[in-house]
């Protein structure tokens, strides 16, 4: 028994040495895992520009629309650490390849969904598959790339693949949706997944943790159901522009489950998520900066595309192209982040970038006119640049604040913070928009009370009401819906600006050095 246990690390080392001798295979492995992460990033944002046409087909309520958009990132965030622990036990190759297969099936299910409930379920399955993929890819890279410099480069490529995917998602979605409809934005995944799966079967090595952590099913159930309960209550409150007994009870139960989850993690010898890392002030502050920044960035991508299409009358392709300056500035910010940190230190670079992002959101709210895209261009460039710096330096601060022996746990929290930020950003700000849309929808003469109630649910519902009205009344409803959505988008921009400004103050205060001589 002792010989068998002792041979496990030796076998892993031998496998790493074998792969180190095959340069071509190493880079093929990197291409496979980075390509799969690119797809995961694309699916985070690809549906954004297709929402108007999808809403006309499926007629989701305001809360259902938010579920369609962010159930993917919420499922991914909730299961990322769980899938990583499970992959360590059963084998990372098995986990990743199973994730590829499940991602293809879930993409097909999304494309052929004929109801809102089906699409929400399929998007949740897509998030689960993405969690299976993302959880084990960085561990595979560490096994395959034994040279420190090569491994650093490979992890850099792997990290950027997800951000690039999220950035190009709206443009790809616009191109595809305009030519073939919203269903096709999911079908493009399938041939890519087939190629990735075929190559991955040949080149990805199997690896396991010789001493895997305990997989705690109770913790998984507590975290997933607790998060789902809180987010469900939030969305329902936005749809009804208020609370009722069901919403309050669901929120309280969800919060209690999350509290129990945290308490359980603190008691377990091998927790699913080690909350002791958050005792380090800079670690917890950097994590909150990433959640707030990436959540605001993804929400800006989503709500800006809806605003341009539904209020400004942009086509899906034109809306996708309108976001390219934001995406390009984000990439420049990520590239120049190390320079900013060297010049001003992480603390002030993060504070300044968060402040720039906040000012950009405020400027977007002040412009508030889709007919003047030229005036929006500078705020979009500032928002993208500031967000790029924050996401890069925030992620680096999370890793550098943790002790080297805990880098794996810190990396899991870092990835989770990005996905959780994306899901919560759309959920919270989407609830704000739904409330303002519903409460600011002006009265339309001649519109029956039941028709006004339907029109107040969402912009797509207003379009459905218009289809049953004569031309003058239909135009009046359209103008009213555009005015209400415009007010909602402005409210989202103002609240996001205030939140980012508060995060900037938090970074300035809490990222201070421990001692006078400690570098920032």
Automatic annotation (TrEMBL):
GO cellular component: plasma membrane
Membrane topology according to the record: Multi-pass membrane protein
Keyword Calcium included in the entry's annotation: no
SUPFAM superfamilies the UniProt entry points to: MFS general substrate transporter
Annotated keywords: Antibiotic resistance, Cell membrane, Membrane, Transmembrane, Transmembrane helix, Transport
Tree of life domain: Bacteria
Subcellular location: Cell membrane
Cross-referenced PROSITE patterns: MFS
Membrane-spanning residues: 27-50, 62-83, 95-114, 120-145, 152-172, 184-203, 215-234, 240-262, 283-308, 320-341, 348-367, 373-395, 416-437, 488-511
GO biological process: response to antibiotic
Domain Major facilitator superfamily (MFS) profile intervals: 29-516
Pfam families assigned to the protein according to its UniProt record, in alphabetical order: MFS_1
A GO molecular-function annotation: transmembrane transporter activity
CDD domains for this protein: MFS_MMR_MDR_like (cd17321)
Protein name stated in the entry: MFS transporter
């Amino acid at each position: 028994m002792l010989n068998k246990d002792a041979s496990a690390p030796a076998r892993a080392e031998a496998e790493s040495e074998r792969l180190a001798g095959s340069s071509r295979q190493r880079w093929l492995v990197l291409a496979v895992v980075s390509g799969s992460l690119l797809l995961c990033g694309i699916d985070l944002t690809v549906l954004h520009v297709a929402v108007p046409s999808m809403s006309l087909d499926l007629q989701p309520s305001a809360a259902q629309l938010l579920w369609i958009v962010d159930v993917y990132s919420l499922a991914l965030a909730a299961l990322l650490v769980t899938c990583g622990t499970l992959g360590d036990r059963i084998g990372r190759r098995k986990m990743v390849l199973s994730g590829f297969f499940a991602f293809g099936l879930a993409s097909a299910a999304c494309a052929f969904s004929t109801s809102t409930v089906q699409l929400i379920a399929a998007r949740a399955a897509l998030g689960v598959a993405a969690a299976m993929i993302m959880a084990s890819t960085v561990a595979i890279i560490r096994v395959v790339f034994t040279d420190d410099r090569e491994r650093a480069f490979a992890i850099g490529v792997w990290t950027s693949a997800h951000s690039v995917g999220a950035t190009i998602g709206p443009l790809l979605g616009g191109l595809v949706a305009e030519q073939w409809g919203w269903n096709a934005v999911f079908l493009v995944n399938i041939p890519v997944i087939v190629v990735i799966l075929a190559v991955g079967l040949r080149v990805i090595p199997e690896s396991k943790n010789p001493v895997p952590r305990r997989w705690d099913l109770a913790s998984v159930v507590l975290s997933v159901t607790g998060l789902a309960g809180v987010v469900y209550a939030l969305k329902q409150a936005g749809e009804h522009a208020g609370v009722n007994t069901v919403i309050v009870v669901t929120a309280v139960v969800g919060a209690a489950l999350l509290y129990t989850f945290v308490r359980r993690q603190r008691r377990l010898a091998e927790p699913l998520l080690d909350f002791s890392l958050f005792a380090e002030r800079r670690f917890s502050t950097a994590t909150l900066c990433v959640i707030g920044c990436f959540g605001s960035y993804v929400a800006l991508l989503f709500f800006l595309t809806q605003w341009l299409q539904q209020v400004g009358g942009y086509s899906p392709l034109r809306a996708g192209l309108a976001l390219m300056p934001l995406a390009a500035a984000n990439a420049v910010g990520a590239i120049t982040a190390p320079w900013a940190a060297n010049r001003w230190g992480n603390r002030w670079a993060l504070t300044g970038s968060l402040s720039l992002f906040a000012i950009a959101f405020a400027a977007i709210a002040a412009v508030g006119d889709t007919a003047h895209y030229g005036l929006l261009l500078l705020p979009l460039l500032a928002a993208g640049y500031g967000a790029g710096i924050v996401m890069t330096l925030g992620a680096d601060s999370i890793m550098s604040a943790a002790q080297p022996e805990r880098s794996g746990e810190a990396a899991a929290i870092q990835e989770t913070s990005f996905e959780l930020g994306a899901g919560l950003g759309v959920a919270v700000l989407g609830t704000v928009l739904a409330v303002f849309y519903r409460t600011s929808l002006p009265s339309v003469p001649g519109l029956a009370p039941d028709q006004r109630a339907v029109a107040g649910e969402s912009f797509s519902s207003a379009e459905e009401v218009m289809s049953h009205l004569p031309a003058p009344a239909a135009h009046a409803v359209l103008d009213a819906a555009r005015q209400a959505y415009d007010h909602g988008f402005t409210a989202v921009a103002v609240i996001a600006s205030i939140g980012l400004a508060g995060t900037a103050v938090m970074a300035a205060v809490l990222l201070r050095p421990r001692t006078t001589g400690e570098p920032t």
